[in-house]
Amino acid sequence: MSTYVVVGLQWGDEGKGKITDVLAEKSDYVVRYQGGNNAGHTVYAGEDKFVLHLLPSGVLQCKGKCIIGNGVVVNPEAFFNEIEAIEKRGLSTDHVFISSRAHIIMPYHILLDTYREEIAGNSQIGTTKRGIGPCYEDKVARIGIRAIDLLNPEVLKTKIKENLAVKNVLFEKLFSKKPLFFEDIYEKYVDYGKRLKNRIIDSEYDINHAIKDQKNVLFEGAQALMLDIDFGTYPYVTSSSPTTGGTTVGAGVPPTSLKNLIGVSKAYCTRVGNGAFPTELENKTGELIRKIGNEYGASTGRPRRCGWLDLVALRYSCMINGITHLVITKLDVLSNFEKIKVGIAYQTPEGNSTEVFPSTIEELSTYEVIYKELEGWNENISDVKSFENLPDSAKKYLQFIEEYLGVDIYLVSVGPERSQNIIKSTLN
Ligand code: GDP
Ligand code: IMO
Ligand code: MG
Question: Which atom of ligand 2 is the closest one to the Cα of 14?
Answer without folding.
Answer: 10
